[in-house]
Amino acid sequence: KHKAEFLSMLEHYQLTVPVRVNERGQFMSYTVKHYRPGRRRRGLDQAELDHTETRLFYRLSAYGKHFHLNLTLNPNLVSKHFTVEYWGKDGLDWQHSVVDNCHYVGYLLDQYSTTKVALSNCKGLHGVITTEDEQYLIEPLKNISRNFSDVNHEGQPHVIYKKTSIPSLQEPSEEFSCGVSANPPYPATDSDSSMGGHRQRRSVSSERFVETLVVADKMMVGYHGRKDIEHYILSVMNIVAKLYRDASLGNVVNIIVTRLIVLTEDQPNLEINHHADKSLDSFCKWQKSILSHQGDGNSIPENGIAHHDNAVLITRYDICTYKNKPCGTLGLASVAGMCEPERSCSINEDIGLGSAFTIAHEIGHNFGMNHDGIGNSCGTKGHETAKLMAAHITANTNPFSWSACSKDYITSFLDSGRGTCLDNEPLKRNFLYPTVAPGQVYDADEQCRFQYGASSRQCKYGEVCRELWCLSKSNRCVTNSIPAAEGTLCQTSTIEKGWCYQGECVAFGTWPQSVDGSWGPWTTWGECSRTCGGGVSSSMRHCDSPAPTGGGKYCLGERKRYRSCNTDACPAGSRDFREKQCADFDNMPFRGKYYNWKQYTGGGVKPCALNCLAEGYNFYTERSPAVIDGTRCQADSLDICINGECKHVGCDNILGSAAKEDRCRVCGGDGSTCEVTEGLFNDSLPRGGYMEIVQIPKGSVHIEIREEAVSKNYIALKSEGDDYYINGAWTIDWPRKFDIAGTAFHYKRPTDEPESLEALGATTENLVVMVLLQEQNLGIHYKFNVPIQRIGSGDNEMGFSWHHLPWSECSATCAGGSQKQEVVCKRLDDGSVVQNSYCDPDSKPPGNQRPCNTEPCPPEWFIGDWSECGKTCDGGIRTRTVLCIRKIGPTEEETLEDSHCLTHRPIEQESCNNQSCPPQWVMLDWSECTPKCGPGFKHRIVLCKSSDLTKTFPPALCSDQNKPPVRIRCSLGRCPPPRWIPGEWGQCSAQCGLGQQMRMVQCLSYTGQPSTECPESLRPNTMQQCESKCDATPISGGDECKDVNKVAYCPLVLKFKFCSRAYFRQMCCKTCQGH
Known about the structure:
The protein is mainly β. Among the domains are: 1-78 and 94-165, no CATH class; 209-354 and 403-422, Collagenase (Catalytic Domain), CATH 3.40.390; 436-511, YefM-like fold; 577-628, no CATH class; 674-789, Sandwich (Jelly Rolls), CATH 2.60.120; 794-854, TSP-1 type 1 repeat (Single Sheet); 860-912, no CATH class; 1030-1075. The chain has a ten-stranded antiparallel beta sheet. A hairpin with a 5-residue loop joins strand 24 and strand 25. The radius of gyration is 46 Å and the shape is elongated. Mean pLDDT is 80; it is low at 36-51, 74-78, 144-152, 166-175, 182-202, 294-304, 427-434 and 792-796.
């Protein structure tokens, strides 16, 4: 059926039977399919292919010409573990991991420099032959009897036709758009454990690898056919991969197809229809259920299933957001879902090779990109044009590159550590896409057929590189504003023969040379983030020396660097920097109320997030995901926050410095300026009172007070006087941090561990450690370093050596963390840590690392951010994602049934914006245009009504500025000119014989109004001669008919034809007789 429609649309075509020949043109076979011994196994090197398998020659004749084709194999190599799977209604039917080597490129043997050929011989010859003066398309004649034609009943008939044989029409374009899933970008929780200690370092350009699963639904199979669908999808994904290699992205991202699933039947747990939102939700859950957890991309798992980071569904359904009916939506994806197993997915409507732009766009949403012009300046007036992330595809869209806003979005996403699943490079990234431009393999007509069906053709040839116009099923010339594929033939006033490259028509055969980018110089250091207390300034460099062009690679490496500045301490009495940042939110409403905010000093929060406590209320919240650069991570640490991450600061206040404090808290010292005071207080003392343990002199550092065993006794701390700081006056304080004597004391009282009190120091006053005895004293250990006066550094008195520190705490409490064993330089006498420079660097052993806490985490609720409210007033609905999940690895989690989460399930839908909407103007329908021709007006009634349309208000309650017009000009066409309108003829003037009759003639307009504009030459007569029938009855009474003698004018009566009048006829009876 498709073939019959196809042939009927062509103005002219010919039939030909191609044959396989040798290089000299000698006949070899009618079989144009080149059967090689089996198909290529995955991973087979090009060098292993026999020379005879890589070159083919064909000959065919058409249009009075002979074509001798010289073709070279264009191997569609795929990733090492690439598989193609065909799924029926019960799941996987069969799969293969081999690829047909049936794509060839070449030229006409005697016209090397002026011709190009791109053919596939998978099922006969299918492709394009481009000569200097014409473009020929050839494809097998399908579903035709082998007894057909005059071709000696051998070989396979093919249809060959010229591109110029296709009719063209023109019609306005339609607008197509992309939707964005309302699912939240990431959980609104305080936990950062999902990063698993592997957060990507900020502002570094690293190469990323998106291992991609592509799924084609059964509608795709029905449209493209099982034999063609694999090659078609790989051609589309080739374009997607190229778009992500464009330098305008500002990052190096490789799209690698690792798995292709072709659905030949509907799947039980996968619902695909016109409703894009429901289809996407179903697909995301389905693809997660088939995700391979055994492979990480670096090795093929035992089950043979390749791992994927992102899933792409391609469908022939005309999808639409929010309803199960066709509309202009082309794709839908979750924003910032990349690397989240159930959100790293998209649905895309197949519109031919232009589907590549949709897929690239939707993957962009997965990377956290918003639409150009939505919440950013890109694509707005006065700024750069909208590009790949445009919300709507129009003629002004440039889909070949990324906007600066898209670049910022993906850079921020990757630098935040949310793209860690893309860091692993597959063992063998040998997915080699076809080197032939897609527009040379699929010409403009074939691209139209992909979009609008077998009868579609290109129908407008102007700016084809900007917009491809096609003949629709209703014979209209339409466009979805997507440009023709690169390599499509084009023509301009200055280029007689060209092809498309990035939306422009360039000379045929020219392709910009690929130039890799290199970093430019660093900019000068920026302003310091703080005026005192240790801030940071930054310096940037750009990939512009040179900038990558022609598909060249973007620069790898650090793009932004930081350094410490204004490290001097702030003046005494200065406000704490975090405290000030919290106070800045005092004038901003939180859930409709105003609070005074103080810094939250408790645990369980991200150190570089701004968590503030509402003064006078028992709650705290995260007011900002990141504090200002240069803010201390912890009050008793020199480490500072940069871009929301904690960065190490040496004791010399230099960012990234290796300088360490010694046991005396001297930066870079050797530990000789203090001595250790250590002891065990285990005296047997009476219960029921406070007893002194030890005095801590002013200036002491590294203070540690710890019970030997769990007891009912309490450690207390007071000044030299009777002022208690902790646990005084028989009142027990909650465990927390206490700011005492110029340092922070950490009081800890775990349920099943001994009580402790620790501080770094140095203390600014003398302190006394006490114990409140409520039972037998089981022993309290104390240790601190007291400053001493000593001449010299002590270097000659003491030795130093490298030591491994104890294993660090596990970076995660479950699902796989890591422990590190750092190597430090220590004094030999007491084992205190000193600067590394005191030890021999050549003898330093390596640090150690090991996994820990590898068991899965307990199930917990994943609570997403609320979506935008469906209405701005009158009560809308907002939703969020709520899932029961269990983390099973550092970057991997699984979704469980809700029953596995023990706590109450959070709500996922609630009402919002319940306030009444203000009155609004409501327009009734326009009246008909009056008058019926010429300039006129339409009128309508405009009412001020409530938003639910149930009440009508005075017009003054609605905005006069926004009032819609109540009258508009109109015209139903030009009015007819005025014309003469004759009336009915009057009575004849003669009762007998000839007379005259009159009528009225008026000049009237089309409305019936008198006018003076009628042409006088066309005026109808107003008088005409008439004749009345005479009465022949004789005069009564037998009187003789005679003229009255007295009347002498009877001859005149006859002359002037007055005999028809009764009087004159009676007076001149004889004269008038017979007249």
